[in-house]
Every structure is written in structure tokens, then in C-alpha cells.
Amino acid sequence: MDLKLKAKSVIVTAASKGLGKATALEFAKEGAHVLISSRDASALKKSADEIIKETGNEQVHYTVCDMKKPEDIKAMVEYAVSVNGPIDVLVNNAGGPPAGTFSDMTDEEWYHAFELNLLSFVRTTREVIPHMKKQGGGHIVNLASSSIKQSIDNLILSNTMRPGIVGLAKSLARELAPNNILVNTVGPGTIETDRIQELNEKRAEKSGKSADEVKQEAIKQIPMKRYGEPVEFARAIVFLASGANTYITGQSLIVEGGAVKAL
């Protein structure tokens, strides 16, 4: 299948590692011109160099961007346009909020999660829409969590902010459909990343078990009996953001090996 991504201008945020990096790598394999961002310049350079080496695609650039700062987001999009041309694809991503229950969270932590995990998506989307309209179309894919379908214990901030992403995407999909801009949301289940390791360690601390015991218990709850690989998640994003997808918009997909029981 031709995904029609060759020479397309793609932004993937929070892409110095984990699911963002895996997604950027898959776009680069398809010949897209990719701009990755995060707050860590050295990690970004390392990731960009690794992607270029693995794919042979020299059109992989990076820039530092704090997703809580609107001026950083504006500068990121301007830089992406300067090196890769007007934006065809935006993949919204941001680090997950801290684990914890309702009683654990302060106002400051609620504001932080709102700015990082919802408002940042609003800001990046606002910046790229004019480019997509001018070109006659584009794709926006928001990375969320399986909590968009089924809440996750001890992740109150994620359970609150992630569904907001779905509401945003659904509204935008309807508003932007006449402009041929497709907007979708993809949520990971348990994918083998540093974020999952971090959450397992926190659960281990609370339960008195080892992180490996926590991992094995989690695996038992997944029908496929394993964690997902970042590439398996990334491929879903790349398809939804590609020229092969011309009619799927406003939808929410979770990549989770059958673990979520909700419809």
C-alpha cells in the first residue's frame, strides 16, 4: 500500500524517545520530511541522528520545544515550515502526567496536566491549521491513552485530561472536514516504553512488590500475553496520518492487545 507520505512535511512532538520517537522513525521510513521536538536538545540530536542512520532519510530535523510554552510551539511550527515546507501532518504528543489518586493532586499539578496534556494540543493545532487549509488538506493525530476508553486506577490526571483530547478531536473533525483536514486520536495500552517502566516502579513501591512482578501481573491481564512494541503503535498513527486515509476522521483508536474491556 502506498501511504503517499514521501516528501510530506510532518511534525511529531515529544519525540526524543518512546512512542514519539518510534512514530517519527516510521514516518521517516516512508520518506516523509520529519521535524521532531522535545525539551532536551541532546536527546533530540541523538534521536534524529539514529533515525537518519536507520532510514537513510536525511530530511529529519529537530528543535527544542516546551509544550507548555506557546511561544515555543509557534517557533517550532515556523521552523518546521522553514526546513520542510507547509505542514501536512501534525502528531500531537506530550509526556504523561504524574500517577496518583484524587487526594494526591494539588492545584498546581492539575494546572500542569491541563497545560501539558490538553492545552498544548490546542496550541499546536491552532498553529498548523492555516497551513493545512492553504494546501487543501492535512492530517492531525493526537496521542492519548487507553484511558480514553476505560479509566486506569491511580492515573486521575490522565483519566481527566485524555478524554478532553477526544472531545477536541471530534469537534475539530467536524469543523475541519470541509477543508479536507482529518483529525483522529490514538491511545496506547501497555506498550514497552520508559513511561510504562516508571509507572510499574511506582506501583511496585506502593504494593511492596518488585517492578518485574508488577509487569508480569499486568501481562496476565492482556489477552495477547505481552506488552506491545512501540513500532506496533506507531504504524497505526502513520496510517491514520497518511494519504491512504482519506475518510476516517473524528475517531478514537486504542492499540492495546485486547486488554480494554470497554466497547
UniProtKB/TrEMBL annotation:
Pfam families named in the record: adh_short_C2 (PF13561)
Cross-referenced InterPro entries: NAD(P)-bd_dom_sf (IPR036291), SDR (IPR050259), SDR_fam (IPR002347)
Protein family membership: Belongs to the short-chain dehydrogenases/reductases (SDR) family.
Identification of the protein by name: SDR family oxidoreductase
Organism: Virgibacillus kekensis
Organism lineage string: Bacteria, Bacillati, Bacillota, Bacilli, Bacillales
